[in-house]
Amino acid sequence: MPVRAGALARVGLRRLSEAPPGARRSLPSSAYDAFVRAPSVPGAVRVLKADPDPHRGWSAFQHVLHAYGLKPRIPFYQAMMMFCRDHMPGKAPDVLRAAVDRGIAVNDTLFCTFGSACRLVDPPLCRDVVDLYARCGPRSHNVIACVATICRIAKQPALALPLVDDAIGNNVGFSEMLTSTFAVCCAEAQTSTGANVAQTLLGLMRSGRVPAFPDNQAIYGNLIKALLSQGRPGAAVDVLSLMDDLGLPPSFITCTNLLSSLVASGRLSHAMVVFDRMLGFSVPVDGRTFVTLIGACKRALDATSLRRLYDHARRGDPALWRDDFVVCSFVSAFDACDDVGTAESIFQTRSNVSVPTAPIFNAMMTAYIRERDGDPRDYLSKGMSLFEAMVAGNVPVDKRALSALVSACRRGSDIAPVKRLHEYARATASLLDDEFVLSAFISAYADCNDVNAAEDVFKTVSATSERICNAMMAAYTRHSRYDAALHVLKTLREPLSMETLTTALSLYCKAGHLSEAIDLFDTMMVNGIPVAKHVFTELVGAGADIATLKRLEAYSSAAGLLQDDRVRSATISAYSRCDSLTDAVRVFACAPGAGVAAFNAMIAAYARHGSPDRAAHCFDDMQAGGVRPNDVTLGALLTSCSRSGNVAQASALIADFENTWQISPSSVETCTTAVSLLSKAGCVRDAMSIFDRMMQRGYRVDVALFRGLVAACKRSADVPAIRRLHVCAKARDLIQDDGVAGSLISAYGHCGHLEDAESVFQTQSAAGVVVFTAMIAVYAHHGLMDRASSCFAAMKSGGVLPSVVTLGALLTGCNHVGDVDLAHAFLSEFETAWNIRPGPITTTCLIDLYGRAGDLDRAEQLAEAGTRNGMALMPLLSACRKHGDLERAERVFAALRRLPVDEAEPHLAAAHVQMANMYTAAGRSGDADRVRQQMVAAGFKKIQGRTTLHLQDRSVNFVAGDPTFMSDPLFKSQHDKVLKRLFRHGYSPDTAVVTSKATASARQAVCEHSEKIAIVYALHALPAREPIRLTKNLRVCADCHAATKMLSALYDREIYMRDANRYHRFSKGKCSCADYW
């Protein structure tokens, strides 16, 4: 049905409104007028070709589409598509859809013209092209190439990837242009599909389906990019093999781009394969690429690959070796791989040519001063030498290198190089304008214990930055000058950086300003500023109360911090310090997977609260959970043993840790605890071994620990160890401490080295009461009462006030020489002058003095007047035996047995032996047997006499009739010779000291007392005239005392014997005790 003119006009106006905005409307043309008068397809084509006006063109097109009887064919649509391309490209999809809707078979020319029009739109009509290609596009080379190109131009390369399968499926030939377009789309798509298509194309090239295109290596480069973007480095490297197989050696650009891409993605092993292929293809490696590869080796710490590059540069390509960037990179990389020797060799080789550039110097300096194993002072020395070489060669030291060198001086704690570097920086003004350099100097001076110099640097800064202020605050904090640090903090203007807020929070914690710390913590929480774990740990450990701890625990739990072992450990310890073991246990159990720090804190908490069994169980759980203990674990367990008094277990723990985990006490805390416990256990050798380790590490020694160790050496009579401690005390300036000097004097005196004790005493510039008392006690125990009195007189003249211990030492001396009158004089003087009366120990000494002097009545009265205890009654019982007062002895013995068990038990065995011996001596064998039976029934055992011979390298123990020695024929012969010599000079065994044997066996028993066996051994083990030093655990018997006096004269030997009561010095047939002991 024909369309009326009015309708045509309306349709034209409606369609023209769809023309591109801003299109200019022109005046009516003659072609258009003719078409309106007589519409036809040829007339419309003439309008499209002659009239550029989009409105009239579009009106003519619409008229043809809707006019009755007009049947346009493909030339009409081609003409309209060309009109769209030239004047209204946005309408091209509508034109093609109209053609398809009307059954037109789209050919290459029409679709490609359509594609050309769509390309001109901004942005290109990519989606329309792809959709219409799928609907009607010919599967030809030109059409596929057109669609792929539009997808790429529209930055939607992924839409072009399915076209590869279309091309393959329709046997389309792959031209260079089409292949290149596909390769670019694969690279730009950056999808796994793109990588898959790239591999498909490479397979087609290998099979010959797609030509190799030898002059277009960009194709291969793009395919390589596609593979690398999806993490397929192996396939990317294989592209080089494919190119080689195709007779197409890869170009420098292809190899370099591939290698650089591999390095950038951290695929060093594949990059090294490409490097080897480049060498095989004779493709040159430029310096820039080579430096990139060296840097990759450095980042990966791949020393093997780095060495291969080094060998190539040294032997294969001298040009690389002349590139200073390459040299600098090698020095830095070998430093990172911890091969300073090779870095030095490279630097020296370069230095032999000419003065190295500043970057090379700085790289070598960085290598020297980087923190590594070994003595930091060795590398610092080399770094400073390099610095001086730079100065001498007028090579500027940059800010970064100078900061690093100054920081290295901090580790060496050597202030001299810091001052030298500071001098250089002052001469180069720009260096001291840098906040990193200034911060480094402040920190270095502080670490070298010159905080005043750090202050001076800080004061020279005209405009302080937060970094500089943080360094100064850290310096003050390190030296516990918290007020000064807080003053610096107040000078900073808000808002403060997260770093400064963190420093401030740490400072408040260390300064004990808990309320300010909590306020700042709350502020940080409100502002969403996270708290570093180590600072939060300090906050938890700052001594908060339970309520605050609960708040902090809630925060750490919500923030996930409580999963951190250090935070959990600090929380456990904080609750423990607040005496809330229940909360500590709850925090420990709140999450699985506790680490060593949490276990250590829990063990320490149990130890603190007196639960050694729970501490041990916690340690068992730690081992069962596969958590390896450390030195802190050992320290916590040792502390538990110390609090419970289980010294034996402590010794076993130290051995177990050493054998099982090769862990020895290492921290100062653990070493201190271990030495203290081992000293108490009498394990002097082990204690000294750990102490020596502390000295080697420069640990500060606690005076109490030192005194305890000296006391342990004293008990074991280890003179060499005492001498080592004496040397250490002098080296560490401990010798002037009253307690240390007093312990050394006592130890030397206890071991019979009177001269050494006097030497320590004489070195004291201002001896106090402890030192004087120790020297008086040594003289007293040696029976040298005149020297003890002189020392006491010197003490008084020096204005040193005595103590009750001093009185006890003087009374002990009076006791050993039997001078009752002098004892009374001392008692009177002490009470009158200093109001010092006898204490329990002093009273015991007086009882012994009166008893040995024969004044048993006074001794018994004194024992009854004071607090009756075993220490007071035993000397009285011994005096009764000495003077044969059996009746009094029975009263004393009965009183002793009436004492509480814990008070009497240590003395009952010896008391039973003495009573049995007294009954035997009085001829009352029945009573003697009764006492011995009581002793057996009660489970008391007679203390076996033991004599210890102290040699230079060891101590040897002897007992009466010792089978170890007396069964040896050679020793028995030596023993007999000594006895015969004694007999020839009038010695006769005193069998009175043996009460339970017949006369013949008694003589033999006396001759085989442990003292005599020890002396016989010493006479043959020690050089002639070497003093013999002995220790007896009981009082020496009268027979051995007499025999020892004779032996000292016969063999011209000084024999020192310390028995349970006093010291004896035998020389030339006499004893220092004057036979009063």
Automatic annotation (TrEMBL):
Keywords: Repeat. One of its GO terms (molecular function) is RNA binding. One of its GO terms (biological process) is RNA modification. The keyword Zinc-finger does not apply. InterPro entries: DYW_dom, PPR_At4g14850-like_plant, PPR_rpt, TPR-like_helical_dom_sf. Pfam families: DYW_deaminase, PPR, PPR_2. Residues 986-1077 form the DYW domain. PPR repeats lie at residues 216-250, 497-531, 595-629, 667-701, 768-802. This is DYW domain-containing protein. It comes from Plasmodiophora brassicae (Clubroot disease agent).
